[in-house]
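Why do we care about 3D structure at all? Because function follows from shape, and shape follows, mostly, from sequence. That is the central idea of this module. The next example makes it concrete: a single protein chain, its amino acid sequence, and then its structure expressed as tokens.
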Amino acid sequence: MNVRPSVLRHALSTPSSTRLPPRPRRLEKTRASAGALRRLHDEPKAQKHLDWPLHEWRSAQHSPAKNATWEDWEQWRDERDGKKQAPVYMSHGAFAVLLTFAISIGIIGQANRAGKMASSRMDLLQEKQGKLGAVMDKRSSKTAAMGRKREWNRL
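And the structure:
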């Protein structure tokens, strides 16, 4: 390991604002946290200390709380309630029909909107082309009239 001494010194030095508390204070904090952990790991003391029941079902052998999937939770509820859970709102087929209906309405709406946009775009384009055509006709008629006057003047 190739570490420059200046980097090592910098990493080991602590500024005065981040210095550790005195050793007796650190020992007191360590003992307090170790005591709290001991109380929490001792079930009767934890029960008294926390004042809420520990959930035994979490530590049961076939509990769904042990990295359970959705199917595990459903099986656990079925065993707990003694009956299979029924669909709450509708069957899978009815949901598929409803979803298909909603999608088809959306598609029709989008197609209608796209058609209106395209027709309005075409109307604007035709109007613009009509105006340009009128301007070009006016210019060409003026130019043609000038040419005729010159020819008549020559005769």
